[in-house]
UniProtKB/TrEMBL annotation:
UniProt keywords, alphabetically: Repeat, WD repeat
Protein name: Uncharacterized protein
Family matches, as PANTHER family: TRANSCRIPTION INITIATION FACTOR TFIID, TRANSCRIPTION INITIATION FACTOR TFIID SUBUNIT 5
Superkingdom to which the source organism belongs: Bacteria
Keyword Repeat: yes
WD repeat placement: 13-46, 69-101
InterPro entries: WD40/YVTN_repeat-like_dom_sf, WD40_repeat_CS, WD40_rpt
Taxonomic lineage from the root: Bacteria, Bacillati, Actinomycetota, Actinomycetes, Pseudonocardiales
Pfam families from the UniProt entry: WD40
Segments crossing the lipid bilayer: none
Source organism: Lentzea sokolovensis
Length: 128
């Protein structure tokens, strides 16, 4: 990762095992998405570029074309392609929206156990 104003290495991101084909940064500049020839993409916290850290685990794609990532303008929606099926996938990476999606999917049957499996980093509060 480099600062355009001062081309000095700020950080080295490791974790993907093959060449990285695509990078995208959220409009707020705090999250980076990377897509690699190893058929994975992952998210990085780059709020402090000198201490960039991975967010979660790499996410694997089915075999197919090289993955490509970008963020929709003015949002935290990740657009992902390259799954080999010709589809674009949209991922809302805002964790605060996850509870709403879980409630809609489970029709109000959100248990603390399900919450912990999906949102382990957030304290449980029955949202439904």
């Amino acid at each position: 990762m480099r600062d355009r104003e001062k081309p000095v290495a700020l950080s080295v991101l490791t974790g993907q095992t093959q060449q990285v084909f695509s990078l995208a940064v959220t409009p707020d500049g705090k999250t980076l998405a990377s897509a690699s020839a190893d058929k994975t993409f992952r998210l990085w916290d780059i709020g402090n570029p000198a201490r960039a850290t991975p967010l979660g685990q790499p996410m694997a794609l089915a075999s197919g074309a090289e993955p490509n990532v970008l963020f929709r303008p003015n949002s935290r929606t990740l657009v992902l392609s390259g799954g080999g099926d010709g589809l674009l996938r949209l991922w809302d990476i805002d964790v605060s929206h996850e509870a709403e999606r879980i409630c809609a999917t489970t029709r109000g049957a959100l248990t603390e156990q399900l919450w912990q499996s999906r949102l382990p980093q957030v304290e449980f509060h029955a949202p439904c």
